[in-house]
Design goal:
By secondary structure, this protein is mostly beta strands. It contains one helix and 19 strands. The strands form three sheets. Strands 1, 2, 3, 7, 8, 9, 10 and 11 form an eight-stranded antiparallel sheet that branches.
Length: 252
Amino acid sequence: MHDPDAPLREAFGLILADANSVLYGDLLNYLGNSDAERIPTRCRGDTCSIGFIRYSDPARFSVENLDLTLVGTRPGIRIVREDASFEWADVEVYGGWMEYAFFATQTDLFTNSADPNRGYTRVKAYAVGEASGVNPILPGTSAQWSGVMLGRDLAVGSDRGQVLQGDATIHVEFVPTGMEADVLFSGIAVLGSGAARPDMEWRDMAVEDGGFERHESPSERIRGRFYGPDQQEVGGIFEQGTITGGFGGVRQ
């Protein structure tokens, strides 16, 4: 049987083939207008522990049983929607697929009547790829990666859980103490309604061992890594206030 999504599935498989790194944000569960419940995650290399019992690694990611739709492109990035209805939940993913990595925001709506979590929505964000583990080489004193952020706003309201999309700019430069990264998200809006959100930024983050991060609190943090043999790409996960998601960019 002809599979119209075969080219996209093949592209996803090529990313996974050499993936050695997973970044996973905390899982956030909510029911209706309730406050989101947080399940913490911890990641090291290609493995993440979620809560106390579950582990995630690149091999666990698959699009084989999902319907795929190419919804947009940026230079070097495909924006793909993934949908599926399983016995336990309806799944919706918006992801940015690059050559060496992908990043995404996902919701699972629990639907099984035998599941005590029925009716809850679980929101998750992740980035997976071939991390270089070394800092990028800068041709001068700085370099820039441009791409997209994909997230969801969990603030109570009509847009709760809907997908946000915006521009992502990652700027890296040499400073007296080493190398630092600035990350800026701009032009953020709810897909469909176009409702705008304020810009988001993180500045002066130390770049070490091919990555950067800032963790001020569970709901105020970002973590990114450079991907590809020449650090051609960057991607990561973030949370700021009520917004959580993933981001990525391609070197300019």
